[in-house]
Design a protein that fits this description.
Blueprint (H helix, E strand, L loop, with lengths): L5 H4 L12 E6 L4 H4 L7 H18 L3 E6 L27 E5 L10 H8 L3 E7 L1 H14 L3 E10 L3 E2 L6 E2 L1 H15 L2 E3 L8
Parallel strand pairs: 1-2, 1-4, 2-3, 4-5, 5-8
Antiparallel strand pairs: 6-7
């Protein structure tokens, strides 16, 4: 028998959010992941995908919220470092809210939930970095807040990690796939790319 997700077992249809029903949330599209302390394999294509989603969201009037990780001064994502800056491909447009965070979960210690409530929408489309860290933590927390989350795989990326059991390397592609697989079991709808997101 082929495996099923908990959502499938519960009879939940795997229907991703539409731009007309959701808020687009762009997580940590910052220079630290491009040319800083944590450059990610595949960050370029992921940023291009985020750019396409942003263009569509702005055209359709979808609310957009940018999450910006704020680290300690002088360190990764330090506000006094180039790595803190949001990259040009994902730069906020006039009127788009930017929320700073200090933890992987973008809801923790921030006004993200209040900002989402202000839009009147109960669905979010998540993009950004890193897949296994802030994207995953935020998607999991969205469930606790009564929100439906959709994650766009091509609009996220992560990095190689050390295998804690073998001492080898788990590739960025495998970390990315595993994080998305875990999310799809219960926490989020998964789509391959922005073409699967309806207007």
């Amino acid at each position: 028998m082929s495996p099923k997700t908990l959502l499938q077992l519960a009879g939940v249809a795997a229907i991703p959010s539409k731009l007309s029903d959701a808020v687009l949330v762009v997580i940590d599209a910052q220079r630290e992941y491009v040319d800083g302390k944590l450059p990610l394999p595949g960050v370029g294509p992921a940023l291009a995908e985020i750019g396409r989603l942003l263009a569509r969201a702005r055209k359709t009037g979808t609310p957009v919220i940018h999450i910006q990780h704020k680290g300690k001064p002088g360190g990764a994502f330090g506000p006094d470092t180039p790595g803190f800056a949001i990259v040009s491909e994902a730069a906020p447009a006039s009127g788009e809210k930017v929320i700073e965070k200090s933890l992987p979960n973008a809801f923790a210690g921030t006004d993200l939930k209040a900002a989402l409530d202000a839009t009147g929408r109960k669905e979010i489309i998540l993009t950004g970095f890193m897949t296994h860290m802030c994207v995953e933590a935020t998607a999991r927390s969205a469930l606790d807040h009564g929100l439906k989350a959709t994650v766009v795989a091509a609009a996220a990326a992560t990095r190689d990690l050390p295998d804690p059991l073998t001492g080898g390397t788990v590739s960025a592609a495998e970390v990315h796939r595993n994080a998305l697989t875990a999310l799809s079991d219960r926490f989020a709808m998964l789509v391959a790319d922005e073409k699967a997101i309806g207007d």
